[in-house]
Design goal:
- The chain is of the alpha/beta class.
- The protein has 18 helices and ten strands.
- The strands form two sheets. Strands 7-6-5-8-9-10 form a six-stranded parallel β-sheet, sandwiched between helices.
- β5, α10 and β6 form a beta-alpha-beta unit.
- α2 runs antiparallel to α3, α15 runs antiparallel to α16 and α15 crosses α18.
- The chain is elongated.
- It starts with a strand and ends with a helix.
């Protein structure tokens, strides 16, 4: 069984199409189970964000797995398979591991080094665990990816070199409005991206922050953290009239802000739409004095180049970390393949010792207990010493490419039942 990644992201897909494929809530849960239910797939995990939708699957056949995942994505998005296929990328085995580690470090993000992706991978793993679609392979792979991402941020300056989408958006806002300190900001929504937006505004010196949300209680909780105030979605038109800067992060599929919502203005307004699906009607761009920046315009304008200080050096260091961690993961994974066989071999040897000791003691019924124990320990030491060198060597050799062949050779040489290692492996997982 091997790991397969089928996905699309801001690098390969127009924002409008990516918006169609993005899944969340019940639709995401259904996609997880639909993928896993295919005969070619044993495990499934989906990372779905505003910038990417990626299906990680453990499959027994490459082509069958790719076809299954592609069909599921097409069915869930309502897009023709041939349209979707033009934008999909596929990674398999070693390349799949490398891709996930690269994503976890923020190297594949719209803004290099952003740290939100770690939380998104963690959320994806938690959901797959809760739904029972992530087994041993994806659990271990995702956990390792999270550790790699943490290491990249702790050991390099990648998170400082690459600002978050919000930080880049505020940089663009200052180009239009000038310094944003002392400006009035309106944040529409109260989810994780809105929380990040509010915190970034507060750190930037924006003390007049209004949080508008469908659920008033959530808006009040978020507003309290930044010394702002809460508003209902119905209050958005009135709040827009007083705002200098708007960040919208709802993503509910409806246009929260339209030309009619903004109306006539006598001062500039900068609107940052970070939602997917988009919150802001594109017609807003035609209003005098209004500047709209969304994910699509960021993509087209090369937003990742907004802040570049020290980024090149940090990227090189993170890539080195990724390569090192990929090698370590693959070595451990290959070595793990032989472990059940080694355990099965030692179990068989222990059975032989027990049977032979039983036969010997039946022939020598008068032997005293001390002598019996001494003989038993001696036989066991002989067997352990005979097995020690080959088992150590086979574990070392198993870490090399094609290492599973050594486990197969061990099973053949010692006449192990092919099903025994699988049974041992299943028992270890259950424990």
């Amino acid at each position: 069984m091997s790991v397969l990644v089928v996905g699309l992201s801001h690098r390969t897909t127009p924002v409008a199409l990516l918006e169609r494929v993005t899944v969340s809530g019940d639709a995401l849960v259904k996609l997880l189970h639909d993928v896993q239910s295919d005969e070619n797939v044993s495990e499934a995990l989906v990372v779905s964000t505003c910038n990417r939708v990626e299906v990680y699957a453990v499959v027994d056949r490459f082509h069958g797995g790719v076809t299954a995942v592609t069909n599921m994505l097409a069915a869930h998005s309502g897009l023709p398979q041939e349209t979707l296929a033009r934008h999909l990328y596929v990674h398999y085995e070693d390349r799949a591991v490398q891709h996930l580690f690269t994503v976890a470090c923020g190297l594949d993000s719209m803004v290099i080094g952003e740290g939100q992706i770690l939380g998104q991978i963690r959320t994806a793993l938690r959901l797959a665990q809760e739904e029972g679609t992530a087994g041993t392979t994806l659990n271990e792979l995702a956990q390792h990816a999270l550790r790699v991402g943490k290491r990249a941020h702790a050991d390099t300056g990648i998170d400082r070199a690459g600002a978050s989408l919000v930080g880049v958006g505020l940089t663009l806002a200052e180009r239009v409005l000038g310094p944003i300190t002392g400006r009035r900001a309106l944040v529409v929504g109260a989810g994780s991206m809105s929380s990040l937006s509010a915190a970034t505004l507060f750190r930037a010196g924006v003390t007049d922050v209004v949080i508008a949300n469908r659920t008033r209680e959530r808006a009040e909780r978020l507003a309290e953290t930044v010394g702002g105030r809460a508003a209902d979605l119905a209050d958005v038109p009135a709040e827009l009239a007083e705002a200098d800067l708007v960040i919208s992060c709802v993503g509910a599929g409806t246009r929260t802000i339209t030309p009619e919502t903004i109306g006539d203005r006598d001062k500039p307004l900068f609107v940052l739409d970070l939602a997917l699906p988009h919150d802001v009607d594109p017609g807003v761009r035609d209003l005098p004095g209004v500047t709209l920046v969304d994910l699509k315009s960021m993509q087209q304008d090369g937003v990742g180049d907004v802040s570049d200080g020290g980024r090149a050096e940090a990227i090189c260091e993170v890539r080195r970390i990724v390569a090192e961690e990929v090698a370590a993961y693959l070595d451990a994974a290959r070595a793990a393949l032989v472990t059940p066989t080694v355990v099965a071999l030692r179990s068989k040897a222990a059975g032989v010792v027990e049977a032979e000791m039983g036969r010997l003691l039946s022939r020598l019924p008068d032997i005293d207990g001390r002598m019996r124990d001494e003989i038993t320990q001696t036989v066991r030491r002989v067997v352990d010493k005979l097995l020690h060198e080959p088992t150590v060597r086979v574990k070392r050799l198993a870490a090399s490419p094609g290492g599973d062949q050594y486990a197969e050779a061990l099973r053949e040489l010692f006449g192990l039942d092919p099903k025994t290692p699988d049974a041992v492996s299943s028992l270890e997982v259950e424990q």
